[in-house]
Protein: F-box/LRR-repeat protein 15/At3g58940/PEG3-like LRR domain-containing protein
Organism: Aegilops tauschii subsp. strangulata
Amino acid sequence: GLLARWLQILAVKGIQDLVLVNRPWALDFVIPSTFLGMTTLTRLYLGLWKFPDTAGVRRSTCFPNLLELGLCCVFMESKDLDFILDRSPVLEKLCVHGNLFKLSLCLVSQSLRCVKITGSFFEEIALVDAPCLERLILTGCWTRGAVCTKVKIGHAPKLHSLGYMDPGSHVLEFGNTVIKAGTKVSPSTKVPSVRILALEVRCGGRNDVKMIPTVLRCFPNVETLHIKVNLKKVANPLARTLSSGMSPAP
């Protein structure tokens, strides 16, 4: 109750920048839904909370001025993430870190320019309609069992930076076409806008190496290629020799 009152006071004062982190760790603590009424927010970062159920939130709830959103270890469902993205009409930056839960990210946004996902697992990341998206950054992502993250590229005509794409953690898909080693690339499976591409490669894994030519054909206009070599997976002397001369991209 006290936290809800604090948030209400901040809302009345027209707060623009809010970083709200729950300590100590307790992901069963639900953040008061009061923050959903902070229409003046331009930057919002939430850490170590359970997101309130958005099913009963009134449809008029909106973040008309929110430009930047960060979520760190926030327990939420896909519908809650869709809710907040749908009601942030000018949002430009989305950062998700330490997602430990079953989530899919469906990007339908006329304003998003950068999406950064670190140390997380998503069942699917779909660029459905993101005409302004310029950068999709994926680092430190992991699999759940044998399930990889499906990265579906739809309408994202301004996408110029993508990575790190990891064959061991990501499945690249265009429409209904899943990209595998040797897949015949067609105009519908090409993204000519991408200029910067980053790949993570396990030199000891033949599948990873075989995927590289196919992935590069999907991005025919790449000007800068970053290759991060996973040295822990190097399995033979030749691969070790090759990788010793390559530094991971910053």
User: Anything to note?
Assistant: The chain has a mean pLDDT of 86. Residues 206-218 form the longest helix (13 residues).
